[in-house]
Amino acid sequence: MSDNPDAAAMSFIFEAGVLKRAARTGWWFAGVQHPESIAEHSFRTALIGMMLAAMEGADPGRVSMLCVLHDTQETRITDIPHIAKRYLNTVPNMAVTADQVAHCPPAIADVITAAVAEYEAGETLEAVVARDADKLECLVQAVEYRHQGVADVQRWIDNSRAALRTTSAHRLADAALTGAPMAWLNPPHP
Questions:
Q1: How far lies 2's CA from each of 96, 143, 154, in Å?
Q2: Phi and psi at residue 23, in whole multiples of 5°?
Q3: Tens digits of per-residue pLDDT, 102-144?
Q4: What backbone phi and psi angles, to 5 degrees, belong to 37?
């Protein structure tokens, strides 16, 4: 590793780019041949998080940051499906993040490790909202896959919905379950 902190920061940026190519592997069990990438999931999680934060009175910027960083560890440990977690022992996400940013400038390392620690602890309103955004994004993705003809997604819907904690996330889940993913293509006429 370089002693240059700017090079170390760029190394983290390059590493995060791997998430654009890394698939969310749990969807293979549902029969999705080409599932979304981790980066695609994180992008929409951040968008949902921003919206939920506005609805719940949390800081939208902070929630979005937590959402963007919540799966960055998967560059090193991959997206481990829930069933595999029964059989594997992994290091905590905080340890992975610490390794990822160890040589970054302290200001960068501090902001990233603090955000990941907050998300992992799940105690602040922003962390609760960010975790809801993660689960709601999974539910929305399952609804979309179902509309595309993937039949075996109900367990993702049920598990994601059961994990939601905020009233706003439950309301949006209801809207996702009763809505049509492509309805936005036919907006109402004025």
A1: 19, 45, 47
A2: -80, 150
A3: 999 999 999 999 999 999 999 999 999 999 999 999 999 999 9
A4: -85, 165
Residue 23 pairs in a beta bridge with 37
Rounded-to-integer distance, Cα 24 and Cα 32, Å: 10
> What span, in angstroms and rounded, lies between the C-alpha atoms of 145 and 136?
14
What per-residue string of b and e applies to 106-127 under the rule 16 or more CB within 10 Å gives b?
A: eebbeebbebbebbbeeebebb
Q: Phi and psi at residue 142, in whole multiples of 5°? A: -65, -40
pLDDT digits (tens, 9 = 90+) for 156-165: 999 999 999 9
Two tokens, residue 130: 């960010």
Q: How many CA atoms lie within 13 A of 65 on its CB side?
A: 15
- pTM as predicted: 0.94
End-to-end CA distance of the chain: 59
